[in-house]
Amino acid sequence: MQNKAQIRFEITQKKKQYPREELNRLSLRLLNQLEQHPRFQHARTVLLYYSLPDEVQTHGFVEKWSKEKDIILPVVKGDELELRKYTGKENLTKGNFHIEEPTGEPINEWDTIDLAFIPGVSFDRQGNRLGRGKGYYDRLLHKASLYKIGICFHFQLRETPLPADALDIPMDEVWTENGRMY
Predict the structure, then answer these.
(1) pLDDT of 9-66, one tens digit each?
(2) Angle at 106 between CA 72 and CA 135, to 5 degrees
(3) I need a labelling partner for 24 at 20 to 30 A (CA). Which of 14, 32, 69, 179 fits?
(4) Are 43 and 112 in contact (CB under 8 A)?
(5) CA geometry: angle at 151 spanning 157 and 27, to 5°?
């Protein structure tokens, strides 16, 4: 069985095989499906993320849906993720890891979040998630009881179980551009 570092390396190598245009196309295909998800359609407040270049591209999705829903984005603060409402591109600033982050006040009422879309380096068909290795999302998800949908490209999905420990929080569903995988 591969360890977490080996899997991260393997996925990084796979990502390099896809031009940005292809990742954008796959992202759009996935997000178009998620727009039809009943939980998303009924959600008033959604936790998303403002994507890095090698992740499912969410910038347009965040902008589009912020007109109809409260979109919450994570902000890196030390070893934790702080949640803030997205209020437009003009209110974003480059944070840690060159991620665009909202500049508003932190949100502490997490029970108002109806749905969370969670990125990952890899997912498996049991709902396990492998992140980048810093534990940000695991610590966040331990604090909040959210309905979690992991999203990734199909080439990031593992057919064999990912190594998981007690700190790893499984997803309620996992989706790729090919539909629901868990």
Answers:
(1) 999 999 999 999 999 999 999 999 999 999 999 999 999 999 999 999 999 999 999 9
(2) 70
(3) 69
(4) no
(5) 100
Q: Which superfamily does CATH assign the domain made up of 4-180 to?
A: NagB/RpiA/CoA transferase-like (3.40.50.10420)
Whole-number Å distance between alpha carbons of 73 and 90? 15
- CA nearest neighbour of 78 among 96, 51, 100, 91: 96
pLDDT tens, position by position, 165-176: 888 999 999 999
What's the longest Cα–Cα distance across the chain?
A: 45
The rounded Cα 148 to chain-centroid distance in angstroms is 9
Residue-level pLDDT at 180: 98
Q: pLDDT (tens digit, 9 = 90+) per residue, 60-79? A: 999 999 999 999 999 999 99
- 116 forms bridges with which residues in the sheet? 47, 148
**Residues 105 and 73: beta-carbon distance below 8 Å:** no
User: H/E element holding 139?
Assistant: helix 136-143
State the Cα–Cα distance between residues 1 and 72, nearest whole angstrom. 36
pTM: 0.95
| CA 42 – CA 81 distance, rounded (Å) | 25
**Number of residues written out for the chain:** 182
What backbone torsions phi and psi does residue 106 show, to the nearest 5 degrees?
Answer: -65, 150
